Amino acid sequence: MIDPRASSARSVPAEAVVPRRRRPLAAAFRTLIALAAATGIIIDLAISDSALRVLSYFTIQSNVLLAIVLALSAVRAVTARRPLPPLITGGALLFICITGLVYHFVLANDASGFSMTDDPDHAVTGARRLSNQLLHTVTPIGAVLDWLLLTRPGTLRLRHAGIWLAYPLAYLGFALVRGAIMTPGTPARYPYPFLDVDAHGYAGVLGNAVIFGLAFYALALLLVTADRFRPRIRGPENRISSQATSPLK
């Protein structure tokens, strides 16, 4: 005869028995990265003559999303609440990684064919240099470190990779529609060189979009795969009993 008490004990999750721990260090780190993103965005808004143009860049949008997600995650970490859904945190991680990789390997690379280093509107001097470093280097590295060191592994799912691509696809539509309704010659009519219909035509832009889209999907799959195999960084354990004999640890 099955003991109902034993069955009930097995069905109770460990977090219902052992209270969730507050994580002030994780909260502090996430707050710093969120502040770095916010600082870079504020600098770009301050030195630009058009806030709407600044907000049209994928760089800015991905950093806004990251700042919000990390700020909420910091609050949950310090109050011992359940983390945000992996679909959201993983998406923010993917988008900021796209921002960093595209900037360093494409937009800031003279050999890429899509470099923006010669664009006078994007001259990297003074305050813009600081904002570039914050938005394209500091926040992507910070997000990856948070994922590797402060986030529980094994939570990302294969289906997430396809869902995440909805945002880059929506951004493509936004950029093309925005460029089509703006007057030719308007500064930053198309936010990135590989989306410039005047230079490449719609066929060329769609070809670029397919190449970048495949690269983004491969990156998403890489994150999901790495999340399954990366080790868990354990904090102090509850020594009441061993893991082999009890869910307490």
TrEMBL record:
Source species, domain of life: Bacteria
Record protein name field: Pr6Pr family membrane protein
Keywords: Membrane, Transmembrane, Transmembrane helix
Entry-linked NCBIfam families: Pr6Pr
Organism of provenance: Streptomyces kunmingensis
Transmembrane domains' residue ranges: 27-48, 54-75, 87-106, 133-150, 162-181, 201-224
InterPro entries for this protein: Pr6Pr-like
